[in-house]
Amino acid sequence: MALRNRNSDELPRAAEPKRPLVVALAGNPNAGKTSLFNALTGLRQKVANYPGVTVERKEGAWALGDGAPPARIIDLPGLYSLDANSPDEQIAREVILGHGGPDGTGRGEAATPAPDVVVVAVDATNLERNLYLATQVLELGRPVVVALTMMDLAERERLEIDLPRLEQMLGAQVVPVVAKQRRGLEALFRAVREAAAEGAGPGAGWQLSGAAEREVARLSEAAGGGVAGRREAIHDLYGEEAAGGESRGRAVAEARARLAAANERWWQEPLLARYEWIERAVAASLRGRKERPRLTDRLDRWLTHRVSGPLILVAIMLLVFHTIFTWAAVPMDLIDAGFGSAGEAARRALPEGLFSDLLVDGVITGVGGVLVFLPQILLLFFFIAILEDSGYMARAAFLMDRLMRGVGLHGKAFLPLLSSFACAIPGIMATRTIENPKDRLATIMIAPLMSCSARLPVYTLMIAAFFADRKVLGVLSLGALLILAMYLLGIAVAVAVAWLLKHTILKAPTPPLVMELPPYRLPNVLTVGHTMATRAWLFVRRAGTVILAISIILWALVTFPRGGVAPGEQLRQSFAGRAGRLIEPAIAPLGFDWQMGVGLIASFAAREVLVATLGIIYNAGAEKETVSPSLIDAVRAARRPDGGPAWTPLVAVSMMVFFVLACQCMSTVAIVRRETNSWRWPLFMVGYMTTLAYLASLVTYQGGRLLGFG
Amino acid sequence: MSDRAERQATDLLTLARLPAGRQARVVAVVGTGTIARRLMEMGVVPGAPVRVIKAAPFGDPLEVRVRGYHLALRRAEAETIMVAADGAG
């Protein structure tokens, strides 16, 4: 619990001319808060995490170009309330109260100073529920300005809002805005500056019952009285978390017991009082019927229909993945070719030697290996942003919830898992929409079991070498069936692991589903663009640095120690070769020899590295990740010391099974580290996946031999 | 006045049992803990009008209309919300 700063946040902060205003932006999810934030800040945004938690912290500069220094605007997570226990709500409360800043917890400069003004985005087409959060913010005793969003929709629905009346009820300025047309932004800035100068309003005017008010008064007095004292008292008495301090905790517990003795549902009182007050405020200021847009109801007749709904969902997903693979192919080839020719150019320009090898085989190949996935990631986030911003994502969760619940997961886990078939990294980043940390962790832990696009080169090589042109039942290609089997194996294991995790270390009651189904909206171009840009940058920066480091290390392990030995012998003598021979006894039961061991070790950095490594090992001249005929021949021709073939169809299947289940992707490990803020979970993931991969491979190879294959 | 009397005599049932399309009013939220609190914060408080729109493909969750917006919640949660159905229509 943060330190409470009882007195300093009472004083209205007059805006000093030199210091930029600090503004916090709060609002319900889907209230148009993100669009407003993007419209206010343009491209001047910083995205980071709050210290110690995975709640995203977005800050931007809000300039009006009138000479005044731009305001710092902090975008709080989308919230329905400030009371409950979720990390989002705690962070939002701390930021608004200034407890998250250097003057509060001393968490350092990355934290936030107390905001001069809190802007609450309130959806004009859904006043009652949106005003609930506004009421709570007003109670915190900070200057508040209400930004009435979605005014264009409200006008279309013929809603008339009596602004002066609403302002009078709320005790705060109310400014109508339309973010995408940039309407009302200047008025909003003026209102914010006035509010900063004037200080906090009187707060919401709701009252509790006599008995409850007496308890609040008693606790308030103990907390120093005044507005802050009452706020503390209400928060401690009715909040979900335990009140701070031992004597305070005892006083609160006694007060709760007295209230509970008289009324079993005593804790509902402030919730009811706020809504009654809101109903009065809305009744006084709103004219016109509030009906949901007819288009949304008409669309939902099909999109969430019990038969057509799931069919349309499947069709949309197929279309998305088809598009990702086909559209991304061209830029991916271009990037690949670009890095290829950059490598050749560097090779020509530099004198032959270690430095040239390091630059070309280590740095350029390593960075290229990451950036080649950028087009897929951009496209995937383009579609995710559109599905999210249009309101369809909530429908997908609604449709899939019953199935996902079967393994103890949330309906919202469906999309991240589906994304992971392209690449686990955007999939894991997409789990941010799952609020409950345990459900989110379980989803992250199984996301890499979905067969991603980096496994395809490996599957393709194995099938091209050993199962090409073989048919089952005369029509079906054996290769396609095997690939399908690999995908299904990944899914089956993921379901089992999720079930197991949710019943053991991530044990928690079935996650509840209380989710808004917002009206459909045309996606906002700026929002979609921002989502793509920030995700792409995070991917390039975080995963890129790790991949780069690993590539250099790997290169060094294959290159050193150097001796005056033949090229084939170099690998055997290198650290990587020694490691391969070291693990040979362990992997021999899986059907693998030491050369494959080198490939396995190398591919722990990234799966597709196996193909390139096998190329180097078999000296087939295939240095790229393309499956050249010569590599296929080399794999078929590889011999064991005893003269028998190194690879058999059974070894190939064993290898594929290993690749389905093993966690061989440094970028994924790096992202999991980032998203979970600890090394525990990424290490656990590597551990359990590798163990499963080993066991499954062992069963495949030994079982296959018993049945007479290979 | 008989119309009004009829309305008074409506039966009390949980939201999970309310037939789709039937208008009702919340009478009580009997659950405790985070979910009950979250439901109330989102406007499902005694007195609020509610209507079940439809159920998802496997019969769960439910789509419910409350305070002018649509909310998805599971039957298990809907069982904790007592409602009184309005009239016969």
Notes on the protein architecture:
The complex is a heterodimer of chains A (710) and B (89). Chain A is an alpha/beta fold and 710 residues long. In chain A, strands 2-3-4-1-5-6-8 form a 7-stranded mixed β-sheet, sandwiched between helices. In chain A, helix 13 packs antiparallel against helix 21 (525-559), helix 18 runs antiparallel to helix 20 (478-503) and helix 23 packs across helix 24 (594-603). The longest helix of chain A has 42 residues, at 308-349. The radius of gyration of chain A is 30 Å and the shape is elongated. The N and C termini of chain A lie far apart (62 Å). In chain B, 43% of the residues are buried. Chain B is 22% helix and 36% strand. By secondary structure, chain B is α+β, with helices and mostly antiparallel strands. Chain B has helices at residues 2-8, 33-41, 75-78, and strands at 12-14, 23-29, 49-55, 62-66, 69-73, 81-85. Chain B is built from 3 helices and 6 strands. In chain B, strand 4 (62-66) and strand 5 (69-73) form a beta hairpin. Chain B has a 6-stranded antiparallel β-sheet. The chains are: A alpha/beta (710), B alpha+beta (89). At the A-B interface, helix 3, helix 10, helix 15 and strand 12 of A face helix 2 and strand 5 of B. Strand 12 of chain A pairs antiparallel with strand 5 (69-73) of chain B.
User: Would you list the SSEs of chain B in sequence order as H and E?
Assistant: HEEHEEEHE
* Straight-line distance between termini of chain A: 62 Å
What separation lies between the terminal Cα atoms of chain B? 17 Å
Low-confidence stretches of chain A: 1-16, 101-110, 620-625
The whole-angstrom Rg of chain B is 13 Å
User: Helical percent range of chain A?
Assistant: 55-70%
Main beta sheet of chain A: strand number and arrangement? 7 strands, mixed
Spatial order of the strands forming the largest sheet of chain B: 1-6-2-3-4-5
Number of strands of chain B: 6
* Mass-distribution shape of chain B: globular
Largest sheet of chain B: 6 strands, antiparallel
